Amino acid sequence: MTEDLSPAERYAAARKRAAEQATALADFREMYDFGLDPFQIEACQALETGKGVLVAAPTGSGKTIVGEFAVHLALQQGKKCFYTTPIKALSNQKYADLAKRYGADKVGLLTGDNSVNADAPVVVMTTEVLRNMLYAGSQTLLGLGYVVMDEVHYLSDRFRGAVWEEVIIHLPESVTLVSLSATVSNAEEFGDWLDTVRGDTEVIVSEHRPVPLFQHVLAGRRMYDLFEEGEGRKKAVNPDLTRMARMEASRSYNPRDRRKGKMVREADRERERRQRSRIWTPGRPEVIERLDSEGLLPAITFIFSRAACEAAVQQCLYAGLRLNDEEARARVREIVEERTAAIPDEDLHVLGYFEWLEGLERGIAAHHAGMLPTFKEVVEELFVRGLVKAVFATETLALGINMPARSVILEKLVKWNGEQHADITPGEYTQLTGRAGRRGIDVEGHAVVLWQRGFSPEHLAGLAGTRTYPLRSSFKPSYNMAVNLVEQFGRHRSRELLETSFAQFQADKSVVGISRQVQRNEEGLDGYKASMTCHLGDFEEYARLRRELKDRETDLAKQGAAQRRAAAAAALEKLKPGDVIHVPSGKFAGLALVLDPGIPAGRSNGHRGFEQHDGPRPLVLTAERQVKRLASIDFPVPVEALERMRIPKSFNARSPQSRRDLASALRTKAGHIVPDRHRKNRAAAADDREITRLRAELRAHPCHGCDEREDHARWAERYYRLRRDTQQLERRIEGRTNTIARTFDRIVALLTEMDYLRGDEVTQNGRRLARLYGELDLLASECLRDGIWEGLSPAELAACVSALVFEARAADDALAPKLPSGKAKAALGEMVRIWGRLDALEEEFKISQTEGVGQREPDLGFAWAAHQWASGKGLDEVLREADMPAGDFVRWCKQVIDVLGQISAAAPAVSGAGGGDTVAKNARKAVDALRRGVVAYSSVG
User: Fold this and answer.
1) In terms of DSSP bridges, do strands 52-56 and 201-205 run parallel, antiparallel, or are they unpaired?
2) Burial environment of residue 495 by CB neighbours within 10 A (0 to 12, 13 to 18, 19 or more)
3) What is the DSSP pairing of strand 122-126 with strand 213-219?
4) Is the dihedral angle over the CA atoms 896, 898, 901, 905 positive or is it negative?
């Protein structure tokens, strides 16, 4: 090809190659035994020119290569690089990868409760650790050149997302930011914001999956392609699936059914039975066997329940499923025994080790948050090595952990979101199925959805076809954030900084369109105003009088209607069984006998609850033998009993004979009575002084005698209608602008009231709060301030601190938790009392938990388990009494340890320091008491 080039072109190409070889990217590319994709090269080149980058690409596409290039640049330039991840498991994995590539001496790890080589030039950490460093002004930040934020789309997370924005906003300007995200539909918008707050940022979006993904539905013994094969971008849903869904939706055949007047033939029913027999939801062992026979393992089956993941493994074991040969079994046992050697035998029994090992030896495992971290990490390692071929996992596995598979199976497209069973979103579907297809190993990946009753192929096609989802900010100021910002920047500058958040950026952007509409409306208002001009006088004033008159008449009419409804409802409440009434209107108007007054439960003497039930709904028997439940709409006017009748005890509303007999008695008893006609009361408007005054002013106004008065009035009506719409738009703009700053102002006002802030000064109380991070930061600070933890033993302190972090998975109506006795119980009670005081203060300052700001009630559900473990009790006893999986127990213990560490740092800042020192010492002792056994040996992080 070069022979076709001119000498000048060959020279230019040679110079270009030489320039490329002199770059850091050229050295970096030599470290990999595969070529880089165009989007990776583009991002790395932008980084080398000094720009920040946002890379949005599908799961498994290799975007972390860009993050690793930032590490390479930092080491080459003698700078530091922090690599942040959303979860500890990801941090552990990235630490292992980078330590292997660059050497353990150059790579460190910081994950809240673990610190390995923290002064290394490259440190992997959770995002919260970096946020805490920025607020504390840590010396570790000196020399920082690059920050990689892996899984940056986590800023949408409503619980932790704010941390990502805090880091992006507060990082020094000299730091180059590398943001790695899943494919999101508003990457350009996010990139625009990064450009605003971080400077020159290149946005690189790649929709290309390196391993193509094929979508299937498994029904009965057959696997169907979701889409028809064909040309063009618009894929059609497989008609076989549509036909099967329609067939299942149709009601089952019945010998009595008639089609066009003829009996359904036996042959038709037999054909239908045969068709239906091919559609069923295959069992879990059946699915794995099927995928194994078709060469589609290893596979991850996503089941949105921990218990169901464990049950799936047991089902496969009971079915005799074996996916490993003897050599693989031996290798599995060797790796497992090596990784779990530190765990004592008595704990292994408690943790279900032998059942777990049996599954692993057969190549089958579960993976969920309830498992011991060590067990989860072993499953991950064996899966990557190909020694575990079928994993049943909850969706937490989809959060960036490097566990690619050939196939991904989804049992259902519905999951419990903490409040209700909801359909999974296109974003969640993309994230889950993104695990399918291992780069460099598989030619194609496969996503398999199991057929379920009510399955809709079109719904699945919608999920599979929507490749992206929008990134929405969940940023909200917190108490800790407020004192840290004020200490560093003062109130005014802090407010300006918060206005630069992505949350405000998105809110402001949404205001642009509304503002344009307001401008158009204002132009229209000028035109309408000109059209209603009258030569006799001020028509705007005349139109205002007409509108005030109309509004007053409408108000009075509404008041009259409300009074009539109230009178009718009050009359209905007086009815008793056996009253004969005349139903004034509706479908069942006429004579009726009250069988049941239908007063809502809990409603008596006008107390609350009536409005929610729309008043009494009497059950009546009409003179036409119908038993009906009437509503308040059937009684526009009050109703009175015309007569009384005895209802026989033998009366059965479902018996036609009973209804006939009683209706006959009703007609005999009261058929001759003519009900009183309800007289209409005099209209309130007739006697209203305000209406009389407005009518007099109207008649006296000069414009009242204008020949074109009604024409002007029509323009005035349009003017007022458009002005009302414009005012609503202006209120929407006001509601969306400065929302973050207004919340910050309310938080600052509350903190000022509580003596945490005095203007731009942070008090001693505020400095203590600045060291406490977490959802209940202010509650923890108040507990230290009031000294309620003084005099507690380390185990009792651990029990109290657990209430600050623990949140039960069970419903609110669960049984009252078991609590340690003595001082710990009293201190926990005091914590709840302090929370009550804070809750009342938040209400006063309009700080709402529904907006993600404020202090939730402390949960005492882990206090007993934390107390027992810190007191030295055995794992078996603690887990049995706590009724909690080992993984959850370890996770909560680690979170308690994290907060105890914060308390040990914050406690000496308590006024009158003596007590604070005792709490600090006991907090450190509690950390040591908790960090033992399974809590201590759960891997690096």
Assistant:
1) parallel
2) buried
3) unpaired
4) negative
- Amino acid found at 394: T
**Residue 638 falls in which region: left (phi positive, over 0), alpha (psi -120 to 50) or beta:** beta
**Residue 369 token pair:** 């948050």
Which of 145, 163, 142, 161 lies closest to 153, judged by CA?
161
User: 402 falls in which pLDDT band (50, 70, 90)?
Assistant: low
Residue-wise pLDDT tens digits, 49-89: 989 999 988 877 788 889 999 999 999 999 999 999 887 77
- Count CB atoms within 10 A of the CB of residue 91: 27
Q: Which residues, in sequence order, are bridge partners of residue 222?
A: 219
Q: What would the two tokens of residue 567 be?
A: 């009178």
First to last CA, the chain: 54
Tell the burial category of 935 from Cβ atoms under 10 Å away from its Cβ (0-12, 13-18, 19+): buried
Identify which of 818, 813, 789 has the alpha carbon closest to the alpha carbon of residue 801.
Answer: 789
Across the strands, what pairs with 582? Answer: 591
Q: Tell me the average pLDDT of the chain.
A: 81
DSSP state of 644: E
* The pair of three-digit structure tokens given for residue 601, joined into one six-digit string: 């439960």
Read off the pLDDT of residues 368-396 as tens digits, 9 standing for 90 and up: 878 888 888 889 889 888 899 999 988 76
User: For 572-575, which contacts have Cβ atoms below 8 Å and span 24 or more sequence positions?
Assistant: 572/597, 572/615, 572/616, 572/618, 572/632, 572/635, 572/639, 573/597, 573/599, 573/616, 575/616, 575/618, 575/639, 575/641
Q: What is the DSSP letter of 534?
A: B
| Separation in Å, CA 177 to CA 28, 70, 73, 147, 203 | 19, 9, 13, 5, 12
Give yes or no for a contact between 116 and 152, defined as CB atoms under 8 angstroms apart.
no
Q: Which residue has the higher pLDDT, 229 or 659?
A: 659
